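hi support,

uploading two proteins for the ticket. first:
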Amino acid sequence: MVMEEGALSDRGRGAPATAGAEGRQILVALAEQNFDAFCLSTYRTACKLRFVQKRCNLHLIDIYNVIEAVRDAGLNAVELNAGISVTRLENLVSSLFNQLSKRLPTTHTINPRESTVLLVEFLLAAMDSEPDNRLTVLSVKAMLAILCGGKLVDKLRYVFSQVSDSKGALVQSQFDAFLREALRLPTAVHEGPSFGYTHTLARSCFTQQKRVMLNMFLDIVANPPECLVWLPLMHRMANVEHVYHPVSCSYCRSNGMTGFRYRCLRCRGYQLCQDCFWRGNTSGSHSSQHHMKEHSSWKSPATKLGRALGRTLGCVSSREPPHPIYPEEPERTLNLANLRILLPVKLLIFLLLCVSSVDSPSRQDEEHKLIARYTSRLAEADGAGVSRQEILAEIRRLRAEHDAACQPSPEKGSTNPTLLAELRLLRQRKDELEQRMSSLQESRRELMVQLEGLMKLLKAQAAGSSHASPSRPSPSASRSVGAASPQTHMYPPQDSLAGVGGDVQEAFAQGPRRNLRNDLLVAADSITNTVSSLVKELHSGTIKTHRTHTPP
């Protein structure tokens, strides 16, 4: 967007507001930042309010946290023009920062008490900056919604919900009251002459539309009215605080820029950092009257060329909507006036029927009395609706349906002998399979015991050979000894290997000596695979048997 802030720079700076002693602490810290050196009042105001926002830690709180705190404080059901005490304001702000301190990680801590004092002092100073310094619910909601963090679209949606009617249309009188409260903030930071409140502001914001709906109101994001031009700028500042541009400033010659970058549309290659542009610094043939383009990100020449080609070929949209499009009609809440009696009674009846089906008859009589007492209370609380006789009739009908459903029906064939016989066979087959499974598990356990004995024998054999030959023989000598006297090695008798897989028998068979440890591991794997295949076969046989005996 092309920045044309020249007209705003000459509107003047306001004199210090008559803030009380309560707001002097944060206003003194604000004066030390030397923001008055900025030539453009829009940037001056946005920088000051951004400083207040960060000093009070409000940038860590979004609009949804504010809405929740307002609801917990009971202010959502209070009229907007109702007054609010300072004590209630302190409790509201204190709850905001106490909840924030619980959400923050341990590496980032704040002082809730200090933040509460600073924010309350500033809000009271903002109220004292105008002749009408009555603190109302609308003033608290408006200033907290503007100063908190989060997305600007979400803030404006919340503001619109406060200044619109039940049909979703903007009410000019309520919007005028909102502007009066919102513009107290620029006045509190000494920018009243530039962005102070006048009675004609509300009509000048939306002059072309007779009926302003939500999406028209949200156009403030892209095309704000002159009195609120600092509000989107404050959010853009928050978004570019850590953006780096790898180019040097044409005035201060700094190596790289952080924040905004401004490029002259007339002077080729002339770029300024945000500090130089805001202070009106110029050099060479460049003039402060030249139009400058504000950049909030850095794009390499290759990226720019790619986007230009994409726009030319129609692959990339040249413009994105400034905000999502929302339905014009407000969301309707569910009317539960007609369900206030019937729904709780039926739910209670259902729960009591479920409980009474397993309780004693005396307990059922007590529950009937409770139901009758409950219905009588509802009938007394609301004269309109269902009478007591109708509710009791509904209870009797549901009780009859429940009893009928619990009684066995003779036509259902619950004593079918064919089904009983098949069920008996399936149970018998299940018992047989379980017995076979237990026998297989016992066999597997015995095999593992045998393998454990063989491993012990192997270890003993290795220990004996180490004592017999302390020095390691050469490979050729080992081969000659093994070939000459294979009978000298100890092997378990073949009867002890009965039922063990072939890999184990081969490991201890007569012949050349092999790696017995590896052979034992292979044998264990073979036994495990065999048992697994048997289990799968048994499982498939169970399924086939169940399908065979299942009646069509």
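and the second one:
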Amino acid sequence: MKKASLSLISKFNRQRFRGISPLLSIYYISVNSPSSSSPLHSMDRRIQFCAKTPGLVYPCRNLGTLVEKPNQLPSRQRKLKEKSDLEEAFESAKTSEEMLRAFKDMESCFDERELGLASLKIGLKLDQEGEDPEKALSFADKALKALDQDGKPSILVAMALQLMGSVNYSLKRFNDSLRYLNRANKLLGRLEEDRVASVEDIRPVMHAVQLELGNVKTAMGRREEALGNLKKALEIKEMTLEKDSKELGLAYRDLAEAYASVLNFKEALPFGLKALEIHRKELGNNSVEVAHDRRILGVIYTGMEEHEKALEQNELSQKILKNWGLSSELLRSEIDAANMQIALGKYDEAINTLKGIVQQTDKDSENRALVFISMGKALCNQERFADSKRCLEIACGILDKKETVSPIEVAEAYSEISMQYETMNEFEIAISLLKRSLALLEQQPQEQHSEGSVSARIGWLLLLKGEVPQSIPYLESAAEILKESFGSKHFGVGYIYNNLGAAYLELDRPQSAAQMFAVAKDIMDVSLGPHHVDSIETCQNLSKAYSAMGSYPLAIEFQQRVVDAWEGHGASAEDELREAQHILEELKTKARGTSTNQFPTKALPLPQHSLASRNSHPNVPFNQNSASSMR
């Protein structure tokens, strides 16, 4: 929901604000409704506001003062009647074209503030239609200039700012959009703090602003930040809507998807389950909304590696989609099911499923390409590499024709295909596909997170190939992009810094390597915990970097932490523990035979002006351990 309530326009300059409930009905009150309230009124004292229906305010005239016949009306009253007629014409307009014609007639009779209100209503209508964002921007700008002349905070100014943010978002001017929305957010906070308006009247506009902020930040790739705004928007809905309303269920699902997009499946799960609970209760087990809820739960369970639960949700979703005859969605759901079977190691079942699906697809369709990608994955897992490559080549042939039509979908598909070639040790082909994916994603600002993930994988593969200098720019770029998208403490960012440390160590730059490993360790300790396998291996790498510098006291300190961490894993990590203890003894032997005066005895500080220290603000498609574990 991105539009501020058109009905709120009529709420200015009156003695008391009326309650606004429920939120969504107020946001979506049609501007064409016969009961729509007027955004305009004469400033003459003869015109008063009176309520016609609960929550809506209408202008009404004091009929006792209008007793003369039309042809006997004094000049001033004739002007009032002319304004009234123009206002009624504007209010009765059913399309944006009719509103624009009425507005043109009004320009000679109404003052700037009154025209500002009309401009706001037209801007909201045009933004809602979405067909002419430039014209919507023109009216939004007029409204803001007219309503914000005195600099006093008001609901109407907040609505105009929200409209400016919304239209700039539609025009992909994300920085401008963010600037206006942040202003609206601050202004609404002042209104609430100073009690200039009631909380009930602030909430609808605040909800629109928070939701739009979430949309803009997501489009800018700042998904971690966007989650905060989307969660605030949900909290407003929870305070305003009935606890079992369909709209609240949709909001829970949207937030579940947002968390899943940054790979935070644990946080996503409860919101997905709430959405399912509400929609089952309100709409029944066979509703399309329930099918969509089960689809996102399948994604979440897959991310949590609970593949049996994921497949169960998928099968239940498929039944509903079949009942409703939604063939396109059903086809995608069947492909998802095949991928879940692959994740469970049921490769023959997956291949049989995909053979059935491929018959339902058009020759050059994206769905057909997806089927062959999944088929290639299943065959690759069976080590039938020649057959797998044939399937992947067919998929690439289809996708090559779709790059301009569906760049994001094609980029994702190239990335998926590259993983299969990587598994087959065909690194050159994998890197080539990833570079094609990166070229497409760089043109899509909203896919910044995917751009960072692909750049990280290119760097990782170049590192595996021994092309270390070439890998570093890709890894550095990925770290900056993903910090912006997911936050500086996301585990994916930690993996990239670990790989950078490995690269610097390969280049015989142990001091730089130690700094990168230290950053990686700090991130992983927070995001994964110090006893996670990858956190332990990062600590091991930090010890190796200090050892390469000849700084044995520090190398021993971090290697001791590795030993302690593996001991905490018990019998399942006996081999790792023995190896860590062996390395520790070797370090102690080296330390006894070396003077340490010329080497650091304290951990190196984090770099102050390099990649690791820049203050930056899903999905990270690499599960591999970092190039890192250089045992």
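thanks. also noticed: Residues 152 and 297 are 47 Å apart (CA to CA).
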